[in-house]
Amino acid sequence: MLTVAGAACGLLAAELVLALTPQFVAGAGLLEPLRLDCTAFTAALVLAVVVTAVLAAAPTFSFARNLAALIKARGRQSSGGSRSRGAWSAGN
Predict the structure, then answer these.
(1) Which residue stretches of 25-89 are H helix?
(2) For the chain, which residues make up each domain, given as ranges?
(3) Cα-based angle 54, 6, 29 (whole degrees, multiple of 5)
(4) pTM of the complete model
(5) For residues 92 and 74, what is the distance between their CA atoms, to the nearest angstrom?
(6) pLDDT band at 69, cuts 50/70/90?
């Protein structure tokens, strides 16, 4: 939801910049009006989706790495003999 809000704000900012550019850049928009190009919009949309997916998946990869280290540590603890294995199966 936050990504959609950010994208909407970006589109509004782009329209504002396109409207204000002729006031600051001599000759801008004289031959044809300034508009948001479909190719640029598509590239920005794809980039936004990719960045969102990567940032959403990052905690998952971090958790999986920590889980693997925890499993290895528990495996070393439980391989110490029958007493350790009994404690492990009892729910520790």
Answers:
(1) 38-78, 82-89
(2) 2-25+35-78
(3) 115
(4) 0.49
(5) 10
(6) confident
